[in-house]
Amino acid sequence: MVCTLLLLALVGCGGNSSETNQSANQGSKDNPKVVVVLKTLSSQYWKFVEAGAKQAFKDFKVDGKVLGPASESQIVEQVNMMEDVLTEKPDALVVAPTQPSTAISAFQKYKDKGIPVLLVDTDAEWADKKHSLELITLPPGRRAGNCSLRCLRKGIRWL
């Protein structure tokens, strides 16, 4: 869902690593080219995000690529991935920066080429960002909050 929203916004805007490609019409010049760089592709959480991005590529006819280092501790490798893929001249970059302050120089290179950068999951103190979307599941959080409130009203306590 999150990647679908980000890709919709983008389409409107015009080593030990893993990489996946997915597109509706491979190589079509009419389809926007989007690169998604995640914190890693080795955890279950980021595999769900990757699956959502791949589905959004199909749904919105986007030539897309999902990248991520082997682990979230490989901060430099993630930044290198962003810089390397810039040579492919994507139409947009969607990124979940592991260490935002380290990635700002890569973001700036995209801005200098006129390529929008959309941040997901983790915000960055970068004045030129287009969008930042934190991955929060509001309905479950709201339900948990309401349940807690009901329990407190009934006198149930947690230790």
State the distance separating the first and last CA atoms.
35 Å
Number of helices: 5
The number of E-state strands comes to 6
- Using the CA coordinates, give the radius of gyration: 18 Å
Walk me through the structure.
There is one protein chain. The chain contains five helices and six strands; from the N terminus they run αββαβαβαββα. By secondary structure, it is an alpha/beta fold. A six-stranded mixed sheet has the order 1-3-2-4-5-6. α4 links the parallel β4 and β5 (117-120). It is globular.
List strands and helices in order, with pairings.
Elements: H1 2-13, E1 17-22, E2 33-37, H2 44-59, E3 63-69, H3 75-85, E4 92-95, H4 100-112, E5 117-120, E6 131-133, H5 138-153
Parallel strand pairs: 2-3, 2-4, 4-5, 5-6
Antiparallel strand pairs: 1-3
Helix pairs in contact: 1-2, 3-4
What is this structure, in a nutshell?
The chain is α/β, with parallel strands linked by helices and 159 residues long. Helix content is 43%, strand content 18%.
List keywords for this structure.
6 strands, alpha/beta, single chain, 159 residues, 6-stranded mixed sheet, globular
